[in-house]
């Protein structure tokens, strides 16, 4: 059997020392998991290694760690997939954005579960309960299946860039959980939930679309997609114009691209507050001066480019995209977790039946 070397980030709170790295070599088949390697090292070499685990089958969500710098489940990661050519050890460290309690164990209560509780993670039905059971259309439940697949492992929270900058951000796992109830037809507090998540400065408009949570999630929940769905329902369907200007900013962004072909940063800010002459434009501009100054200093934008924006000449392809999207009567929501083929259209099936069996 091949040897695999694990380089584990250790932290022993009782020692009063800072965290350090320690290596362990284990003799296991390549298809065995990183969790099995850690448990083998603990059983045979060092009983003090701390790791949380239970099911060992990617179901309970308790063995979230960072492996070679990426978040994931230790029990769901094969050694041969992360060992490379074997010249470097496999690094295993605790998840990010949560305080470390010991070695690979993080304080999920302090961050993850607190945020889950923040979104009222239970149904709030309206009126008296029905005499028998609630009848829910099949499509409605399919719509929330993706967010229901969450096993609360915290991998998405670990690598959320917004949460790193703003620890108060509600975060990917909790917002995916929020969609599970917003999308449920039995819930009677849809508008209130969306208003709450839009008005909170650390709510749905605090996500920066970095895609890390989509990459991190071992269950295909795609939290960022659920957040975008919350935004579309809040802004377009429920017409919630939040005080953070999140919805107005999104609308201004689309308008800006449609008009200029390329984003014209100098217009985006005032447009997000209702235009250059809107009473809020000047105070908002003054408030944004530190951000603008940083952007200028880092040459993200230059004064010439900001004022003399090079408008795109060729609009044909771009306009076609806008026309195609805006022509639709109904918004098409894709639940990416549910895969399969569409049933045959009824007319086609009827025509085939009429033609009789194939020869
Ligand atoms: S896409 Fe949004 S929620 Fe997901 S990790 Fe990035 S900032 Fe966080
Ligand atoms: S959304 Fe995915 S990564 Fe985040 S807690 Fe749930 S299962 Fe884990
Ligand atoms: S031990 Fe349960 S998900 Fe890994």
Compact description:
The chain is an alpha+beta fold and 359 residues long.
Main β sheet profile? 5 strands, mixed
The count of DSSP E runs of length 2 or more, i.e. the number of strands, is: 7
Distance between the termini: 56 Å
CATH architecture heading of the largest domain:
Orthogonal Bundle
CA-based shape: globular
Broad CATH class of the largest domain: Mainly Alpha
Low-confidence stretches: none
Helix content: 40-55%
Q: Say which CATH homologous superfamily of the largest domain is assigned.
A: Alpha-helical ferredoxin
Structural class: alpha+beta
Descriptors:
single chain; 359 residues; alpha+beta; Ubiquitin-like (UB roll); Fumarate Reductase Iron-sulfur Protein, Chain B, domain 2; 3 domains; five-stranded mixed beta sheet; 17 helices; globular; binds iron/sulfur cluster; binds FE2/S2 (inorganic) cluster
């Amino acid at each position: 059997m091949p040897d695999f070397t694990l380089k584990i980030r250790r932290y022993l709170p009782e020692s009063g020392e800072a965290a350090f790295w320690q290596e362990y070599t284990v003799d296991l088949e390549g298809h065995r998991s990183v969790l099995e390697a850690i448990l083998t090292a603990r059983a045979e070499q060092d009983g003090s290694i701390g790791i949380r685990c239970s099911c060992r089958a990617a179901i309970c969500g308790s063995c979230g760690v960072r492996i070679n710098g990426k978040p994931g489940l230790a029990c769901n990661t094969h050694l041969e997939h992360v060992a490379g050519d074997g010249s470097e050890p496999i690094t295993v460290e605790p998840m990010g954005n949560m305080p470390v309690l010991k070695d690979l164990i993080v304080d999920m209560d302090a961050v993850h579960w607190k945020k889950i509780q923040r979104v009222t993670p239970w149904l709030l039905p309206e009126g008296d309960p029905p005499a028998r059971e609630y009848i829910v259309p099949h499509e409605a439940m399919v719509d929330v299946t993706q967010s229901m697949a969450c096993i609360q492992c915290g991998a998405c929270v670990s690598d959320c860039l917004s949460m790193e900058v703003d620890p108060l951000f509600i975060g990917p796992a909790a917002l995916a959980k929020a969609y599970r109830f917003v999308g449920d037809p039995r819930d009677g507090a849809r508008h209130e939930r969306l208003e709450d998540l839009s008005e909170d400065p650390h709510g749905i408009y605090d996500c920066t679309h970095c895609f890390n949570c989509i990459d991190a999630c071992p269950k295909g929940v795609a939290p960022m997609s659920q957040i975008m769905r919350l935004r579309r329902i809040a802004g377009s369907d429920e017409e919630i114009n939040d005080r953070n200007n999140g919805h107005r900013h999104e609308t201004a962004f689309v308008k800006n691209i449609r008009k200029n072909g390329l984003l014209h940063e100098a217009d985006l800010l005032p447009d997000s507050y209702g235009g250059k002459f809107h009473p809020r434009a000047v105070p908002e501009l003054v408030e944004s001066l530190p951000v603008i100054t940083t952007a200028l200093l880092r040459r993200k934008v230059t004064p010439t480019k900001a004022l003399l924006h090079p408008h795109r000449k060729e609009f044909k392809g771009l306009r076609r995209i806008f026309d195609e999207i805006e022509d639709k009567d109904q918004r098409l929501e894709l639940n990416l977790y549910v895969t399969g083929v569409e049933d045959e259209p009824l007319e086609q099936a009827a025509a085939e039946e009429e033609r009789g069996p194939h020869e």
